[in-house]
């Protein structure tokens, strides 16, 4: 997408607005599948939580991907997008047995990450195939909030509890058809990932009727020019070779599964905002925009960086700005960032706005959530309307009038 494409979209649909580039999503999908072309059976399950718009799910599914879901609502969204239940993985954390059973009835592959629910489910449904999520006790990820495989994580069944897991499987007679792990997001060290993979392989040896091994995802994408990222091609080469060796020793062909979310959609997303006010203080120049952490919480939540460009004046002289929102709390997108000179009314474009941006948006301060647009085949297609005041009132119930005595 060019700057002019983005400016045209802001003009037509207003700001703030999320824009996703279908071509970038497709190229990332192709890059991942090419990296693992040495594996005979590869399945990519897109992590719905990253960006759950129905049109995006349809597009990614058309590329050949299944879905990875974490709630029954995401499962239903996937089915509404035309994905067959057999191509959906359900990987929740801490959900009720009722929700797990409801999803299993839909024909979705379930993934259980705690011994209590595993025993209850196996006792009641021993013939239903179940994947088990292990915790490899490997610290990986760019922030403690997105590192999920370490020893104190709430996710997964500890590798030290494998004897308990095997006892449950033996006592219930349940069918374990997959083993899963996820160490965290923003993985840089391939050797750490490969170390965790060896733990998964060792665990898999305990189960004789597996169909697949699920290695999660968490691949890091660049957030600025020259930024470091997961070397997916190197990982693909090394892990494919090791996976093929394991298949031979296991004595059965298996499917290699990944669950990319951010990797597929992060770089495809732009978030467009309009500058309301340029405010000079004694030490700072603020660019105050028509959005806030109600629409893009990641910088405030875990310090994520989003490149910001002034697409209304891309060749302007660079100055230092702190870009802030309109929420009545500390609401900072960037501090003392070099950006082409900004005037009130200019359109700023935030990069890496495809993953965990709209999906984490809220109506805080009673603001409307933005529209979403998919740029596909050279055209902008509206895929979610901007909310209105009626949407804020939709599920609220006014107090019934009372007659004063």
UniProtKB/TrEMBL annotation:
Its cofactor is pyridoxal 5'-phosphate. One of its GO terms (biological process) is lysine biosynthetic process via diaminopimelate. The modification N6-(pyridoxal phosphate)lysine is found at residue 49. Substrate binds at residues 298, 302, 329, 356. Its EC number is 4.1.1.20. InterPro entries: Ala_racemase/Decarboxylase_C, DAP_deCOOHase_LysA, De-COase2_C, De-COase2_N, De-COase2_pyr-phos_BS, Orn/DAP/Arg_de-COase, PLP-binding_barrel. It holds the Pfam family Orn_DAP_Arg_deC. Pathway: Amino-acid biosynthesis; L-lysine biosynthesis via DAP pathway; L-lysine from DL-2,6-diaminopimelate: step 1/1. Residues 18-354 form the Orn/DAP/Arg decarboxylase 2 C-terminal domain. GO terms for molecular function: diaminopimelate decarboxylase activity; pyridoxal phosphate binding. It catalyses: meso-2,6-diaminopimelate + H(+) = L-lysine + CO2. It is an enzyme of class 4 (lyase). Residues 23-266 form the Orn/DAP/Arg decarboxylase 2 N-terminal domain. NCBIfam families: lysA (TIGR01048). Specifically catalyzes the decarboxylation of meso-diaminopimelate (meso-DAP) to L-lysine. Belongs to the Orn/Lys/Arg decarboxylase class-II family. LysA subfamily. Homodimer. This is Diaminopimelate decarboxylase. It comes from Leeuwenhoekiella nanhaiensis. The lineage of its organism: Bacteria, Pseudomonadati, Bacteroidota, Flavobacteriia, Flavobacteriales.
